[in-house]
Write a structure and sequence with these properties.
mainly alpha, two-stranded antiparallel sheet
Length: 407
């Protein structure tokens, strides 16, 4: 570990805490941060939240928790290889999806519309809110929750988009309501720049997302990588890549990236048939792809240590293209399927109706949110509390709440 490369400001917590001697030797601050995220209720809820396909649909498919565990493993190995702190990178990876609501990005889009008058909704901003407010562990001198009270370095690494919502829209990492703790966390940080540990988490997320969603799609029968051998089908997938990820990428550029992937020794030559041999071949492909993408990353730091803002992660454009190709394959064949679109429409209606009912009957929320609602200063703050409650639900509990409250 390279704890000595971090100073007192990096290890500072919003509310000072004495060291705890649970076992010998005393755990380091960043180890304590990791333990707090692992034991958080918000982490357990991820097991019943959609990654791409609903967790109730199949025993094999990934949910938000298994995805986060895989991102954490990739982030830790990548951090160790690059020279940054593996505990910080792993904790950021474990926490990166805590703010996602039920039904994945579909639920996120609905809540963003419904929260338009109180600053919108973004899963990454919600993660910061959970870590610094909603997941209660520590309180300040005024009796207000400061969440898990993580160190500044760890909390910053968990922040994928360290800025407020842009006027033109797009991703962001903090609501106006949470600016005080955000400002404390970003003391001394360059404006809108991720720390290197957050960059490691971000790449690990992209790698896991691109590779594992394709793996899930293959096993579910929604994807056959041999389909891409057909030029016409590739054109359709490239349209999805442009629509979702790379609007300026031409067919020739995406074809070149696909050929690089296809030329890998482990790229399938036969369609998936569910046999153990197929399982082994698919697992070898996912391992090779993860190694390929992570192996291409470098730390641009010169003589400086790979710590916070002393370094940046660099990833070749060719690697980013290959990752986008795989993400586009999953988006095209799984997320844009007709069956999937019908399910997503039902989910959007469910979330909207649930928010409407709780707006009218805030007393039906959990005790902590009832208290927050009673203390809210205006309608916007009260709507934020309702959004917090609905966002905290899992796919199953959101469905159960809707059945109980909206039938």
């Amino acid at each position: 570990m390279n704890d000595e490369l971090y100073d007192d400001a990096d290890r500072e917590r919003l509310v000072p805490e004495p060291p705890k001697r649970v076992v010998a030797p005393t755990r380091a601050p960043f180890e304590r941060d990791r333990a707090r995220v692992v034991h958080a209720a918000a982490s357990r809820r991820l097991a019943a939240k959609t990654q791409v396909v609903g967790p109730q649909s199949d025993d094999f498919v990934r949910n938000r928790l298994t995805h986060s565990l895989e991102v954490a493993q990739i982030a830790r190995d990548l951090a160790r290889a690059l020279g940054c702190h593996p505990d910080i990178a792993e904790t950021a990876a474990l926490a990166h999806d805590l703010g996602h609501p039920p039904f994945g990005h579909n639920g996120e889009a609905v809540l963003d519309e419904l929260a338009a008058d109180c600053g919108g909704f973004e899963g990454n901003a919600q993660t910061l809110r959970i870590l610094t407010r909603l997941e209660a562990k520590t309180f300040d001198a005024d009796g207000l929750s400061v969440g898990l009270n993580l160190t500044r370095a760890t909390l910053d690494a968990c922040t994928k988009y360290p800025w407020r919502r842009p006027a033109e829209g797009g991703k962001f990492g903090v609501y106006a309501d949470d600016l005080p703790v955000f400002s404390w966390m970003r003391q001394g940080a360059p404006v809108r720049r991720q720390c290197v540990e957050a960059q490691v988490m971000d790449l690990a997320d992209d790698v896991a997302y691109s590779v594992h969603d394709v793996e899930d799609g293959v096993v579910a029968g929604s994807i056959d990588l041999l389909w891409l051998d057909d030029a016409g089908r590739r054109r359709e997938v490239w349209q999805t890549v442009r629509g979702w990820y790379l609007p300026d990428a031409g067919d020739d550029v995406l074809d070149a990236a696909w050929r690089q992937l296809r030329d890998q020794r482990s790229w399938p030559s036969l369609s998936w048939d569910g046999s153990r041999r197929s399982m082994a071949a698919l697992k070898n492909l996912t391992s090779d792809l993860i190694g390929r993408f992570c192996g291409a990353a470098q730390a641009a730091n010169g003589p400086a240590p790979v710590v916070r803002f002393a370094a940046d992660l660099t990833v070749p454009d060719a690697t980013l293209l290959e990752i986008a190709v795989l993400k586009g394959v999953a988006a095209h064949f799984v997320m844009q399927s007709g069956e999937r679109r019908a399910i997503m429409a039902q989910q959007r209606d469910l979330v909207a109706e649930l928010v409407g009912v709780l707006d009218e009957r805030p007393d039906l929320m959990g005790r902590e949110f009832v208290d927050d609602h009673a203390e809210a200063r205006d309608d916007a703050a009260r709507r934020r509390v309702v959004i917090d409650q609905v966002a905290s639900l899992t796919d199953a509990s959101a469905t159960a709440w809707h059945t109980r409250l909206c039938s």
